[in-house]
């Protein structure tokens, strides 16, 4: 568990979040039974053609990953010849071409990449923005890890991105927490980090005007000294109006309040949803006690993913030893670059195998990984139907005609 006393230093938290056994912050060290080793063994016995070949160009350090001829012709697959990005650049790099290999050495590199993409989107006039990447190494899942670890890590990373964006663009940011207790806790834990960011301000979703019943309840809590107010909260107020609002650690129930907050305070100002795991929150929409699906159609669909990394682990059974193949991949987007499907390599890096100007669905991402690995069933086969099922897309990925905006797909 991350030591809460160490969370106050904004310059050294990257080492705390760095995984102890792997250079890639998104995954632990690869297992001995790797997909690459298995596929090469199949190639030797003639079971499959060589699924992935690596060619080096004349420029040193440039790597081009090419799918085998048996799998060429995919509607989205495109070969890339882009310099791998491993170090943070002091200036905004050209991200329009995407990356061929993504292997950040630490979370400092990830934060720099997220800040660069955010600045590019702000310069293009985008005002509804989303950043999504694993706040902790994937060896610590959201089910196994402590919720406080994820909450604190998200705040740390958000403050780090805010600092870099301020250095690059001079942006004055306001961090919005779900409620007053979360706001007060953050003020106590991250007092030093907040003091190091010039012009930062803080707020909460409780600032949204509420109905008469809620107002009476808040008045009662205040009278009983349970309003969770903090005398130090006033120290983080800027004389200038914020030029960026950052929402952190919000739940599905908070999404409708975020919409009201944006309509009240952030009409023409950029708003950033930071690491809210929107795909997970969308799955609750429409259920009893949660906001309706229309919230996605009219509000969440407006937000452009400017930096997005979603890692996934898969497995597939095959008729030869070892019978079960484990493989991993990721869906990557760095604005203004394309959406990219990345295949995890044995060294922990992610290699681009397909790209598109529009967002891949989760089912399409998995199909691209299977195609390049040579593990995809024949089109229209009964086995392929049994594996995929009748539906291989979520309702928010399918209901295109109901969306007021397609920004979240772009």
UniProtKB/TrEMBL annotation:
Instruction: Tell me the domain of life.
Output: Eukaryota
Membrane-traversing stretches: none
Residues forming the DUF1995 domain are 104-366
In its UniProt entry, what is this protein called? DUF1995 domain-containing protein
Please tell me the species this chain comes from.
Answer: Apostasia shenzhenica
């Amino acid at each position: 568990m991350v030591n809460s006393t160490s969370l106050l230093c904004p310059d050294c938290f990257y080492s705390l979040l760095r995984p102890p056994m792997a250079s890639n912050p998104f995954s632990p060290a690869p297992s001995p039974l790797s997909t690459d080793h298995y596929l090469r063994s199949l190639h030797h016995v003639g079971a499959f053609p060589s699924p992935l070949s690596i060619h080096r160009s004349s420029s040193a350090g440039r790597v081009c990953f090419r799918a085998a001829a048996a799998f060429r012709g995919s509607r989205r697959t495109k070969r890339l010849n882009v310099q791998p990005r491993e170090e943070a650049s002091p200036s905004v790099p050209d991200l329009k071409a995407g990356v061929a290999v993504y292997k950040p050495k630490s979370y400092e590199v990830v934060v720099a990449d997220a800040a660069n993409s955010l600045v590019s989107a702000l310069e293009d006039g985008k005002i509804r923005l989303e950043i999504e990447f694993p706040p902790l190494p994937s060896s610590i899942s959201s089910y196994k890890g402590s919720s406080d670890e994820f909450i604190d890590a998200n705040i740390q990373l958000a403050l780090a991105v805010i600092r870099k964006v301020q250095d690059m663009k001079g942006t004055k940011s306001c961090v919005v927490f779900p409620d007053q207790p979360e706001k007060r806790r953050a003020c106590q834990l991250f007092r030093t980090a907040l003091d190091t960011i010039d012009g930062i301000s803080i707020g909460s979703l409780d600032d949204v005007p509420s109905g008469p019943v809620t107002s009476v309840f808040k008045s009662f809590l205040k009278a009983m000294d349970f309003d969770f107010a903090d005398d130090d909260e006033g120290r983080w107020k800027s004389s200038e109006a914020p030029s960026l609002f950052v929402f952190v650690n919000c739940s599905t129930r908070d999404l409708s309040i975020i919409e009201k907050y944006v309509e009240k305070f952030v009409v023409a100002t950029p708003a950033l949803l930071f690491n809210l795991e929107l795909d997970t929150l969308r799955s609750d929409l429409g259920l009893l006690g949660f906001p309706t699906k229309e919230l996605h159609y009219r509000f969440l669909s407006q937000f452009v993913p400017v930096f997005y990394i979603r890692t996934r682990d898969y497995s597939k059974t095959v008729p030869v030893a070892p019978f079960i193949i484990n493989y991993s991949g990721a869906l990557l987007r760095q604005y203004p670059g394309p959406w990219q499907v990345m295949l995890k390599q044995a060294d922990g890096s992610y290699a681009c195998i397909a790209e598109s100007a529009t967002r891949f669905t989760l089912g399409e991402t998995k199909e691209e990984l299977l195609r390049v690995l040579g593990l995809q069933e024949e089109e229209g086969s009964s086995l392929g139907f049994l594996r995929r099922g009748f539906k291989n897309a979520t309702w928010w990925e399918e209901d295109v005609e109901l969306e007021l905006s397609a920004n979240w797909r772009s």
